[in-house]
Amino acid sequence: MQTSNFAHVIFQNVAKSYLPNAPLECHYTLTHYIHPHPKDWVGIFKVWMDTARDYFTFLWSPMPENYVVESTYNCVVSFRGYYLPNDDGEFYQFCYVTNKGEPKGASTPFQFRTSSPVDELLTLEDEGHSDMLVVTTKAGLLELKIEKAMKEKEELVKITSVLEKEVTQLRQYVESLEEKLKQEREQSDQLISEREEMFKASERFKTESEDVNRKSKEMSTKITQLEDDIMTVTQKAIAKETELDSLKDKTKKVMLEKEQLECQKDLLQNSSNQEDILFLKQQLRKLEDQHQASRQEVSLMSKELSDAVNKRDKTMSDLHTARLETDSVKNQLANALAELRIRDVQQKSSTFLKKDQGVENTRVEQELRKEVEDLKLRLQMAADHYRDKFKECQKLQKQVVKLTEQLKVAETQQKERELFDNAEVAAVIHMQQCAVPVNPFSSEVSSELDIREQVRQMSSEISEKIENNRKCKQMLAEEKARCSAYADDVAKMELKGKEQLKVNDSIKRQLIAMEDQYKVQSAEKDREICDLSHSIETL
Description:
Elements: E1 9-12, E2 17-18, E3 24-30, E4 41-46, E5 55-60, E6 73-79, E7 91-97, E8 103-106, E9 110-112, E10 121-125, E11 133-137, H1 138-267, H2 274-349, H3 358-434, H4 442-538
Parallel strand pairs: 2-9
Antiparallel strand pairs: 1-3, 3-6, 4-5, 4-7, 7-8, 7-9, 10-11
Domain Calcium binding and coiled-coil: 117-271
Keywords: Apoptosis, Coiled coil, Repeat
Domain SKICH: 9-112
């Protein structure tokens, strides 16, 4: 599609008439159809002009600055008053002519006329919407328009000042929010660095734990080797003791043979009393029965004591497991609180991004609340488990006290029996020394020696029994001390459980307060962001 040559340059704001001998400004627009040249010019022609040489006056067209091909530019030229035509009643027009003498644009016609009083008058409609016409001068109309424009300008200046203040306040608020965001990010970075340090510390502790376990295994191996050495030495000692006992038996046999010879010599001179021997045999049987009953009683009490020790060990194991579970729950609760703080920081830093993340934040809050409730339930279960273990420990302690009393009674009875047995043994020995056997045969002498041997064995068994009772008493005292320590541990654990419950309540209150504060802050941030967005949109 081709365009007219006169449409390449468009003249703007051309009046119907101009004053002669007064400066005149000509405004025009160079379209993208024309390529300006320094020798292009703008002239004033009469409407009936035939060629480009019929101009009245002209001015060179200025070149646009930073000219770009196929771009539009606005230009202006000023004609001096003494070069312009006089008031001759002719119609003139502006025309843009290229360096080749080709016209590329022409304005609407206009005249050069001197002003008259009638020309300065204007007729306007009444602002009261009446049918009357108001006659006024152009200067008065211009003054009214200028006054109105000045008022509008003042109002615009005031509005601009208010808006600038609001923009300044908004910028300050945005800067404060950015500062808070920066602080939150610094806190988040600090938490991340602390978490990394804790991870490194845990790795270091893990390495140390592995070293300790390795050393423990080495020590266990050394202990096993030492136990084997002790067992070997013990076996050698037992062998030596066996040899020593064999030598003692040989010595006793020699002594018995000597006593037999002496008894045979005495039998040739004296008579014996068979009734005393029968009485001694009955006393020996009675002592054997009592000894067997005491042995069974001690065995039964040892079994009961062993059962009590096993129950105590099981209870200690359960208590240790409960402690581990409590520590695990504490760690989980601490991790949950740390995660809650981190997510709170992340939430504060992400409130400026999108509002549709509220659903995700609500879900995270629900998950955290659920996790906290689960931890509280587990802590409550651990506290109940502590109470059950404490009651069981009290029952075991009562059983140990009861067994201790029974053992004391058994020891008292045993001491009385030992005194009685020692008295009877002394009487038997005295009667054996004073007795005069009547049977001259060697079989009776052997029976008397057997009775003496049985008395000696019973004496050794009684001493062993006394030693065993002493050991049982010592074990019972140690067990009592352990039970007391266990009771103290249980009491401490109960106090720790109560303190933990208090801490849990405090943590629960803190979580509730943090949730409320978080909700309030989230609502405030959302409201502030909405206000800020509205203000920015308004600006």
